[in-house]
């Protein structure tokens, strides 16, 4: 794999010309055409799709309207509630409400199904599409029923990726979907585009997860594709089926790219044909000359079975290298994991799983939008057929990604072969991806063909003294490990032939169970509210000045949204903002909620016209120091909490990572940088100021920070401003940055949140 350190020109979709001093003259010699970087940049597929969906009239400043949207049951209640509070009348574009994140009633009694019936009533009232629980995981349904070459789809899940089918899809926080529901736009600068040039043919024992992990390992830490579009090109694509490409594409989220798109060919045409949607296909490729801001060159034949060790998909090794250097690698992983957990109550232990010189695992899972596809499960069947997974600690679970996929696997005998091995087969469910299904035992290692392996993502609870870990692998190597009864085994060691049974799609499954209401909004229909579904609490507008107490100080290199608001059983409270907020940072910083609430008491006192010192006595000394600063007035100074993190926001698109902070009185985040655009957007949409600091951090946990004239700074689009840390009875000045904001983003922060913005 090669990462170009310059931009590149791509000629006729085949020849790469590095952007050096001679590039344009060389291109003229080959093509006979005068080219410029600016004109050639318009030759990418991404540029064409984005400009076709842009309503601004300015190709540098995009205002995008999407063709369709999708949400699952961890997000759609909050989205609809926000949109209702902002004036929603009907869904203006097809909006799919799926229920693949249902929590299997882990806690909370009826509230899980209450949310589902609320979703169905929303689909009836506003004209939506409703996919009941266990019918399909969100992204498989969108692939099967909603994708289209050249289309754009927005989803409230970070793995909204259908680029392999020619569709540019983006995962964002719920407020961005709210904007679309209110006929507003998704506003971004024209993103940079990076070519992913595939050549060669992968070995039969190499699956899409292996290729995806190899890419993630090469680009995540260096930010090579951060907030850029990954555009897949090259002659090697012809050697990959559409299903295989989907498996690579869905994992592009873990690179922190903005979106992805692939060339389309007869393999993709066959996909649309078999799904009865031929009208959604067209051939798509870059222009004869296209310019890219970077290039990842991959020879597929060189990819080996891979493993992403805990606790991030970028923590990548070949399985061969891991097995050859077990003690050294496992020791390194243990040290890094325990440093990241920073918790004396639990310790990750991996070297104790080495038996007779081989690493053993206790669990295997093939699931979700990444692992549960038809071809992945067929390949796993080909490896496991006729074998036993054994009666020991190792267990294997398989989750087909949709009922149509499940039906096809039943009809071709794959399900029977898998079950005969001792593995269990479940329905379409995202649980193993976020800790609501197949939670391993304490101190166990699970290998999964799913999307993420963040801390506690598998469902363990540090606060209860539990820790388990996940390593990501391809279904093929998971099956090979199952045959070896839990001894970690690369698929290259297995003796098998791929049967490649033909796929048949039967949408009767959906026709008999799903509600198709787009274009059929019924304003008279009543919404069905369960007892846990509550409205958003009132949120105040940004004050002239801000006084912020640092209530959490996180020094990890990257902080995931799962650490900011844990997944798993917390999802049962997704429809109740105040109850959900009780779980904020619970596994990373259990003291956070209590500290934030203490600060919030002072703000509430101010809103009620009372003296905030009565609610929070320590403010007396803080105000005494602030009184030495010209222009300070406590009457126009809001009080809130903030967190500091080095690089927060990697991972899930769930806006709850921001909204939970806001309902607890959070007014800002301070970071060296934000891991993803979507997390920064979530902060803004919930009225939180996304501060950036790039110098030596002048404050500590528990310190107060005063930001004068913050409202003026936001309104005027100031990129940098002064702030003060109150420490040792003094106000010490430092510089803090804001970053560029659109006009709408400024107004949203000033109004206090997106709901207030649309009400005003």
**Strand line-up in the sheet with most strands:** 31-30-28-26-32-33-34
CATH architecture label name of the largest domain: Alpha-Beta Barrel
Envelope shape: globular
- Class based on secondary structure composition and strand pairing: alpha/beta
- Name the beta content range: 15-25%
Looking at CATH, the homologous superfamily of the largest domain is: Aconitase, domain 4
Radius of gyration: 26 Å
Overview of the structural elements:
- The protein has 29 helices and 34 strands.
- The strands form nine sheets. A seven-stranded mixed beta sheet has the order 31-30-28-26-32-33-34, sandwiched between helices.
- Helix 5 (111-126) links the parallel strand 6 (95-98) and strand 7.
- Helix 4 packs across helix 7 and helix 27 packs antiparallel against helix 28.
- It is globular.
- The mean pLDDT is 95.
């Amino acid at each position: 794999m090669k990462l170009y350190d310059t931009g590149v020109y791509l000629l006729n979709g085949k020849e790469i010309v590095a952007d050096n001093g001679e590039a344009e003259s060389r291109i003229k010699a080959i093509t006979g055409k005068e080219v410029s970087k600016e004109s050639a940049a318009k030759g990418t597929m991404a540029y064409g799709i984005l400009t076709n969906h842009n309503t601004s009239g300015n190709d540098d400043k995009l205002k995008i309207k999407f063709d369709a949207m999708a949400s699952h049951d961890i997000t759609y209640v909050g989205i609809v509630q926000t949109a209702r509070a902002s004036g929603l009348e009907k869904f203006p574009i097809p909006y799919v409400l799926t229920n693949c994140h249902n929590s299997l009633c882990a806690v909370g009694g009826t509230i899980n199904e209450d949310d589902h019936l609320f979703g169905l009533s929303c689909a009836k009232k506003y004209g939506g599409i409703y996919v009941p629980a266990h019918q399909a995981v969100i992204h498989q349904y969108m692939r099967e029923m909603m994708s289209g070459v050249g289309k754009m789809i927005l989803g409230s899940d970070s793995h909204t990726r259908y680029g392999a089918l020619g569709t540019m899809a983006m995962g964002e926080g719920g407020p961005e979907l709210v904007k679309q529901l209110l006929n507003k736009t998704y506003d971004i600068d024209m993103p940079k585009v990076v070519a992913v040039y595939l050549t060669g043919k992968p070995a039969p024992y190499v699956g899409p997860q292996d290729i995806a992990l190899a890419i993630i390992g090469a680009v995540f830490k260096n930010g090579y594709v951060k907030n850029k579009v990954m555009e897949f090109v090259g002659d090697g694509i012809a050697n990959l089926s559409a299903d295989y490409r989907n498996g690579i594409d869905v994992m592009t989220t873990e690179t922190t790219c903005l979106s992805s798109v692939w060339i389309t060919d007869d393999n993709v045409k066959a996909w649309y044909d078999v799904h009865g949607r031929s009208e959604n296909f067209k051939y798509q490729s870059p222009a004869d000359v296209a310019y890219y801001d970077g290039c990842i060159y991959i020879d597929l034949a060189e990819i080996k079975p891979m493993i992403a060790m805990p606790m991030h998909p970028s923590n990548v090794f070949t399985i061969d290298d891991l097995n050859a250097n077990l003690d050294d690698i496992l020791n390194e992983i243990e040290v890094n994991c325990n440093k990241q957990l920073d918790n004396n109550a639990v310790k990750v232990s991996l070297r104790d799983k080495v038996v007779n010189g081989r690493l053993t695992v206790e669990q295997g899972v093939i699931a979700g939008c990444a692992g549960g596809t038809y071809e992945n499960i067929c390949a796993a069947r080909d490896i496991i057929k006729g074998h036993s997974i054994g009666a020991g600690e190792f267990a294997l679970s398989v989750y087909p990604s949709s009922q149509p996929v499940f039906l096809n696997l039943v009809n071709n005998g794959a399900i029977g072969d898998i079950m005969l091995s001792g593995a269990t087969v479940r329905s379409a469910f995202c649980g193993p991806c976020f800790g609501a299904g197949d939670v391993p035992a304490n101190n166990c290692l699970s290998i999964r063909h799913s999307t993420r392996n963040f801390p506690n993502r598998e469902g363990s609870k540090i606060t209860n003294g539990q820790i388990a870990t996940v390593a990501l692998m391809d279904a093929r190597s998971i099956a090979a490990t199952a045959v070896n009864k839990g001894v970690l085994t690369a698929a290259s060691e297995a003796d098998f032939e791929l049967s490649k049974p033909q796929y048949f799609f039967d949408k009767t499954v959906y026709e008999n169970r799903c509600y198709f209401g787009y274009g059929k909004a019924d304003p008279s229909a009543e919404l069905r509210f369960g007892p846990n579904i509550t409205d958003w609490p009132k949120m105040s507008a940004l004050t002239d000045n801000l006084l912020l107490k640092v209530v959490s100080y996180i020094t990890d290199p990257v902080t995931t949204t799962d650490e900011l608001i844990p997944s798993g059983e917390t999802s049962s409270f997704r429809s109740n903002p105040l109850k959900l907020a009780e779980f904020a940072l619970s596994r990373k910083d259990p003291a956070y909620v209590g500290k934030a609430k203490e600060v919030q008491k002072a703000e509430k006192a101010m809103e009620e016209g009372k003296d905030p010192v009565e609610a929070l006595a320590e403010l007396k000394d803080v105000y005494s120091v602030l009184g030495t600063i010209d222009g300070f007035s406590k009457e126009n100074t809001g009080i809130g909490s903030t967190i500091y993190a080095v690089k927060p926001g990697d991972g899930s698109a769930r806006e709850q990572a921001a909204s939970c902070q806001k309902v607890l009185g959070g007014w800002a985040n301070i970071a060296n940088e934000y891991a993803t655009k979507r997390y920064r957007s979530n902060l803004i949409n919930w009225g939180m100021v996304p501060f950036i600091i790039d110098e030596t951090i002048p404050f500590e946990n528990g310190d107060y920070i005063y930001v004068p004239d913050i409202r003026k700074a936001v309104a005027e689009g100031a990129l940098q401003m002064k702030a003060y840390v109150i420490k040792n009875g003094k106000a010490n000045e430092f510089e803090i940055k804001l970053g560029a904001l659109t006009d709408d983003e400024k107004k949203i922060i000033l109004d206090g949140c997106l709901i207030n913005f649309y009400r005003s």
